[in-house]
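ingest -> validate -> predict -> emit
validate: passed (alphabet ok, no gaps, 287 aa)
predict: started
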Amino acid sequence: MPELPEVEALKDFLTEHLVGHEIVRVLPVAISVLKTYDPPLTAVEGREVTAVHRHGKFLDLVTDGGPHLVTHLARAGWLQWKDRLPDGPPRPGKGPLALRVALETGSGFDLTEAGTQKRLAVYVVHDPQEIPGVARLGPDPLADDFDAGRLAELLKSERRQIKGALRDQSLIAGVGNAYSDEILHAAKMSPFKLAASLTPEETDRLYEALRGTLTQAVERSRGVAAGRLKAEKKSALRVHGRTGEPCPVCGDTVREVSFSDSSLQYCPTCQTGGRPLADRRMSRLLK
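emit:
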């Protein structure tokens, strides 16, 4: 799933390639991708893109005097830039293509979604705050005013595991499954630890890991072409998606806990005092 660093990189990429250009056509291929109908999708056609913003994991294309074209790539969505779009409209079918945006230059991008769970979402709105997912977003962890005190305030009443708290978009915007694993590994913290139980020292450590992990990921992604961002993300992950491999910090074997629709990875030596975590579906949680 694209998370804050990848969406930030896409924002920078699209700022360079879209701002100052006119959207001439928006061609929906999978109608289910459209989550709003007023204004219509055609309302952005004939308008110049004036800015590109990021709200958590949402991409926001701002048009001159008109509505915003906002996208959430969800779990399996992606943006594919094309210097030259194919001639003729795309054909609806069973392929991954969901929506195409064409510029006056002949270039543009496709929104695609792999798999059977179709969660890619496109909105046309006058204000991004009209989108429930944007309106409920918590603070951006890379914002200048997001400090350790702000993080402590957010977590002090959270009677749930820190892994789940970090992934909650209404608490902190932009962090998903992969980077929450990476942040907790950097913080040397169990994903099952209760968020409200963190000491001031642990909160400071988590804050440094949160800011450091995301900042480094953004820097690695900056300037990388859209088509290579997924590979860049995967190559830099230390524990997420690396079950059975040695931890790059201590050499212990990276372990996994599986859930119904996701999994987490962690290093026992770095994060849980050497103890493997129990499968939460079958045993009580380790703190």
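Residues 200-221 form the longest helix (22 residues).
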